[in-house]
Amino acid sequence: MTELLPLTPSQTVGPFFSFALPYTGGEALVLPETRGERIAIQGIVRDGEGRTVPDALVEIWQANAAGRYAHPDDDRAGAELDPAFIGFGRCPTGVDGGFRFETIRPGRVPGPEGTLQAPHLAVGVLARGLLKRLATRIYFSDEAANGEDAILAIVDPARRATLIAAREGDDPSYRFDIVLQGEGETVFFEF
Amino acid sequence: MIDSRRPAALAGFRPEPPGSQPPYLHETYRSSRKRAPHESLVPIPQTLSEITGPTREWPRLMGASAADLTAGFKGEPLGERIVVSGRVLDEDGRPVRRTMIEIWQANSAGRYVHENDRHPAPLDPNFIGAGRVETDDDGNYRFMTIKPGAYPWRNHDNAWRPAHIHYSLFGPGFGTRLVTQMYFPGDPLIEIDPIANCVAPDVRDRMVSRFDLATTLPEFALGYRFDFVLRGRLATPMEHA
Question: Could you tell me if A135 and A187 are in contact, meaning their C-beta atoms sit under 8 angstroms apart?
Answer without folding.
Answer: no
